[in-house]
Amino acid sequence: MSELNKTALKILSNGKGILAADESTGTMTKRLESVNVESSPENRLLFRETLFSSEGMKNCIGGVILYDETIKQTTKSKQTVPELISSYGALPGIKVDTGAKVLAGSTEEKITEGLDGLRERLKEYYKLGARFTKWRGVYNISDKYPSKLSIHSNAHALARYSSIVQECKMVPIVEPEVLMDGNHSAEDCFNKTSVVLKKCFEELDLHNIDLTGIILKPNMILAGASSDQKLSGEDVAKLTIRCLKENVPSEVPGIAFLSGGQSEVEATENLNLINKYNDSNFIMTYSYGRALQQSALKFWSKDINNIQDTQKIFNHRANMCTLAAQGKWSAELETK
To answer: Which domains does the chain have, with CATH numbers?
Structure first.
């Protein structure tokens, strides 16, 4: 077992998942302003530190994805943020892409940037304590998208990123996200996600990536947000599992789903059903941002110094997700 594989399994095993706290300053500002909290570096840190020092971290969270600002901050207890996360038994990780920009040659689609200077940044992040990384490629769905250009360009970027990350002794999270926006059917999502995944793994193979030392962060197979199609949780689970079994090589140790616009309970319920029906060898867990933080953020915004009660809300959400990652969640547990 390679060191990279050990790291990936430490993050994903025993029902643990990933807390995606890697919102850029711009995104975090939108989130805080939506609940009438000023977005200062101190407030951004206070909210994150509240989550990172909660009990739920110990039993539920195997890794935390950070943003450049956060990984360099120092907490009230004079620990660095990575030291705080490590003290709760989770591994610190870091988002390393610099965002999705307009794709030249297909102006309605995006290409993720950030390969320039990546090696140097990774060395610094490793010294700061990061042991895994994240890079997100985004794909639109419509009758003409994602285009071949978008599929190829983003797969190539994900593979180059993964190659440099593994060279720097860290585990890359590979996140090809087929977006929920649109009125497409679940079948469309299945077909287009399949093409995207196939191309990603072709490129990863071409770049000699150790697949036992990556984590895949895909979307679930869902109908578009503005589609009339009503899909049961069972349908979502079965389509998602089929898509992954058909397109992801068996060496990949685990899959940590993004929540991608689903509500907290929806993302939990769908993950639970995926694990009930999971007949593959993949660990299937979560890498949620909003679906882990939204309730806690709303509560915290009423009194940003009420740390303890905010943590209770986060602990509950993390616990629900971890039960779902083991197929042990039920709707009744939400209200207990």
So the answer is: 3-335 (3.20.20.70)
